[in-house]
Design brief:
With 656 residues, the chain is an alpha+beta fold. It contains 14 helices and 27 strands. 26% of the residues lie in helices and 26% in strands.
């Protein structure tokens, strides 16, 4: 009877079995069963090891092809010895990793930087007429994907084996060596360094839908280009049959060089126009579900001008790009989101699947604004800045926004004021943030339609980008926060109070392409000399391109929030940096100077060094010290690890 447990045979029986067709078939069936049981995990392994330069569609197909073709390599001619019986999947892992690493290498003598040619006979599976990709994740998935793409292919394989497959370092090194990696030990060390910097949260992100090549979303290929190619192919075949040879050369010269519809300048007739009710019948509620709105959506002259400027901005055109946003022409037919007159000026907005492009006309010339919008969601695709004039912004709201109002973050107790919205989704002017200290801080308070699952209220704030930033809040431990620290919408009383203080210190985020800002109250402290109760808050601004900046505040009731430190491009205060410790100098009501320090919930003790030394158990410490005393703080976590203060690492930091 055939079983699923690996067979352990004597040398004599192994020899006879390797020569027996029945024995070979038994090994093959056993390997096939193991492959079917572990198929999803093996495909994920191949997908993560394959280079991101292939594109998501090609990576998905290549991952499935590698796993399906690994069966012969994973079926040894001789059964595995008893020592490997504890890991029946080792041969499958080795075969998949070997195949994925082979895809990462350039063919011999192939020019560096050039894409290797595709095989004339593609290997199964083959998908025609569809583009497949895993479901999109969030900013954390994007950041982890970027970090993995910067690793070498063997190190990437080692990281996945360690984090997803749960192998030990020695076991992962053995798999890499069996797959033909020469410097397996170096690859494991490189992966371990990244693993240490990301923390344990990376494992859950790696197993999310973003990297699941078996849970896919399908989209059609370029339908217009496909129909054109079919027609050209039919014409070429007919011409070849009629002319036999004379016209064949002419067809060969003309057909391959015939431009596709978007290799030339796109036209208004090529634009994609969404159905007005598509957002209510799709699981992807983002800019791809927006319909075309505005009083000039049929103005071909305006649309053609806008497309021409985008494809090749003429002299005198002002082009504004958010950081990390390419200014390339549209790679395919863009989606038309809006075309109309706003304040007497023509405005057109396109979406090409990755970017938002706003074209505007005025007496001084054309203005082209480009910003990233990939992997937007119900909140981050709920509004975009349509026109700015006189210190105010008119927004275009998403069709799923059921209620809209404006509230001033500096007045958390004041109710939100209703915001007038026209039938085409354009709002009345909303004042911009003003004042270097703490002037007006208006924010959009929107509520999504009950027709979608994410029906809730949320806040958006204008930080100078084409799309307003989504504001969220994470409360103190034990103040209603879930066991796993997760941001929530910043519409509750505690969130509004926190944002009433921290919102004044976000000028540094202006214009940097901020996607979302989370205010995390990570510690609270009773200050000495009757200083009252203080809360430590870390405001993290995540950008569309991945990196995030933080600003740490010390908040006290009735006082302006004190900026403790700012750090650029850091993982602190995110899912990959859940532990923080900071310090600052503070003057008490009695005129005494103190060094204050605080750490997040996993901190068990704090140690001050420098001109003042002290060690205290718990999350906070306050020690008398001269005003300009040079000190450092280090925390000890419940796991026994030491944690340096925010701003002291390679990313640096600035203190006011």
């Amino acid at each position: 009877m055939e079983g699923s447990r690996p067979m352990v045979l004597s040398p004599l029986s192994r020899s006879s079995l390797s020569r027996s067709p029945h024995g070979s078939r038994r090994l093959l069936l056993h390997a096939e069963r193991r492959l079917a049981e572990r198929y999803a995990e093996l495909v994920r392994l191949a997908y993560l090891v394959l280079p991101a330069s292939l594109g998501r569609h090609r990576r998905v197909l290549a991952a499935h092809s590698l796993v399906q073709r690994s069966l012969p390599d994973a079926t040894p001619a001789v059964p595995a010895p008893r020592a490997s019986a504890a890991d029946p999947d080792r041969s499958l892992r080795v075969a998949v990793v070997r195949g994925a690493l082979a895809q990462c290498r350039r063919p011999r003598l192939w020019p560096e930087g050039a894409r290797p040619p595709r095989l004339l006979l593609p290997r199964l599976p083959v998908v025609v007429g569809l583009r497949l990709a895993p479901r999109s994740g969030g900013a954390e998935e994007m950041a982890l994907g970027q970090a993995l793409s910067e690793l070498s292919a063997p190190a990437r394989a080692a990281f996945v084996l360690l984090r997803v497959e749960g192998l030990t370092a020695d076991h992962a090194r053995g798999v890499l060596e069996a797959a033909g990696v020469d410097e397996a030990r170096v690859a494991v060390r490189e992966a371990s360094r990244l693993d240490t910097s990301l923390g344990t949260a990376a494992a859950s992100v790696l197993t999310s839908d973003e990297f699941d090549a078996c849970t896919l979303r399908a989209r059609p290929t370029d339908l217009v280009r496909r129909r054109r190619r079919v027609r050209l192919a039919a014409i070429a075949v007919l011409a070849g049959a009629l002319t036999a040879g004379g016209l064949a050369a002419a067809v060969t010269r003309s057909t391959p060089d015939a431009p596709g519809p978007y290799e030339r300048q796109p036209r208004s007739a090529d634009l994609v126009r969404g159905d007005p009710d598509a957002w209510a019948d799709t699981s992807r509620v983002d800019f791809t579900a927006w319909p075309a709105r505005g009083d000039r959506v049929r103005d071909r002259a305006l649309l053609d001008r806008a497309l021409a400027v985008w494809a090749d901005p003429p002299s005198g055109t002002r082009v504004v790009r958010a950081p990390g946003t390419p200014a390339d022409p549209p790679p395919r037919a863009p989606r038309l989101l809006y075309a109309g007159s706003v304040g007497g000026r023509a405005v057109v907005v396109f979406h090409d699947g990755q970017r938002l492009v706003r074209y505007g006309e005025s007496g001084t010339g054309a203005l082209l604004v480009l910003a990233r919008a990939d992997d937007a969601d119900v909140t981050t695709a709920a509004a975009l800045a349509l026109a700015e004039r006189g210190g105010a912004v008119r927004y275009l709201l998403a069709p799923w926004v059921a209620e809209s109002s404006v509230r001033d973050l500096t007045r958390p107790d004041a109710p939100a004021r209703p915001l007038r919205v026209a039938r085409d989704g354009v709002t009345a002017p909303v004042p911009r943030w003003t004042g270097g200290g703490c002037g007006r801080r208006p924010a959009l308070q929107l509520r999504s339609s009950p027709a979608i699952a994410e029906h809730h209220a949320f806040l958006l704030a204008d930080l100078g980008g084409l799309t307003p930033a989504h504001l969220t809040y994470t409360p103190l431990p034990g103040h209603g926060s879930p066991p796993a620290r997760q941001p929530r919408e910043a519409t509750g009383p505690a969130a509004l109070v926190a944002w009433g203080k921290t919102g004044c210190g976000l000028e540094s985020a202006d214009g940097s392409g901020v996607r979302a800002v989370n205010a995390w109250d990570f510690a609270e402290q009773d200050l000495p000399d009757g200083g009252g109760h203080a809360v430590w808050t870390c405001a993290r601004a995540d950008t569309w391109r991945g990196p995030g900046d933080i600003t740490v505040f010390l908040r006290r009731p009735g006082e302006k929030a004190q900026v403790v430190t700012r750090v650029r491009s850091t993982a602190a205060c995110s899912r990959f940096g859940q532990h923080v410790v900071v310090r600052t100098h503070w003057k008490s009501p009695r005129g005494h100077w103190y060094v204050l320090a605080a750490g997040s919930r996993a901190v068990t003790s704090l140690t001050l060094t420098g001109e003042v030394t002290a060690t205290r158990s718990g999350h906070t410490v306050a020690v008398r010290a001269p005003k300009d005393a040079s000190t450092e703080v280090r925390a000890r976590l419940a796991s026994g690890e030491n944690l340096p203060e925010v701003g002291s690492g390679p990313s640096g930091g600035t203190r006011p």
